[in-house]
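In this supplementary section we document a worked example of the pipeline. Step one takes a protein sequence of length 286 as its only input; no multiple sequence alignment statistics are reported here. Step two produces a three-dimensional model, which step three serialises into structure tokens for compact storage. The input and output of this example are shown verbatim.
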Amino acid sequence: MTFSKIGVIGAGVMGVGVAQDLAQCGLQTVLLDVNTGVLDKALKTIADNVRLGAMLNRTAETEPVETVLGRITPTVDYAPLAAVDFVVENVVEKPAIKEPVYHRLDAVCPPHCVFAVNTSAISITRVAGWTNRPAQVVGMHFMNPVPMKKLVEVIRGFHTSDPTIETARAFLAALGKKAVVVNDMPGFVSNRVLMLTVNEAVFVVQDQVASAADVDKIFKGCFGHKMGPLETADLIGLDTILYSLEVLYESYNDPKFRPAPLLKKMVDAGLHGRKSGRGFYQYPNM
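The serialised model returned by step three reads:
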């Protein structure tokens, strides 16, 4: 199975990672966002990431930055998506914002095109209901940083067909990644568990049981985690953590998913983690 051109919707942290991975794997990519400034920043970030990767891995043959960027077509117009075979949507975790995007995609993308929803919590079945091709909608939960993660959580919605699952597997194989296919419930496996862990870690800091650094030291030193839950939260984005918890809380009506007040306060203050320069930790180079 071949893919001539891929659409990536949203040029935030995840969209940048997906677009970079696609371009470095030789795939022509259309990167769409509503803001040209965001697109310019995305291309600069990709260029910086490619240069850094080349510096850190001098033994591997790497393509020039210009070659990688030459495979990415930035756009604020949906029209170029008329030529794509596969779409990865990375819009913010708010159904009211995502739904209109799918109406636009459904109208412009070719009939054979598969829509992959890169979401951490929103029901794939619900998203499929926004389209006229529910059998061709699949969840594809990439982890950050996308180019470094070789496993992807793939979610089968109620209507997702077997051919769509196989297309998703082939797409990921083209990126050197493997799929673990799970069924559709909000949060799936990874975030249904991870968001609870992160949220409880925030409560621990809020209740002054321990500092963020000490919470993370315990998880790394005692359990062998590469990153602690609050370092992970900063990497994902505290705003994304909050949105995901709100979706889980609404979906299950279970108080265990209620967001910690400290998390809400930090997001309101603009402390979103690495992408804003400050979260539970300071990032002076951001």
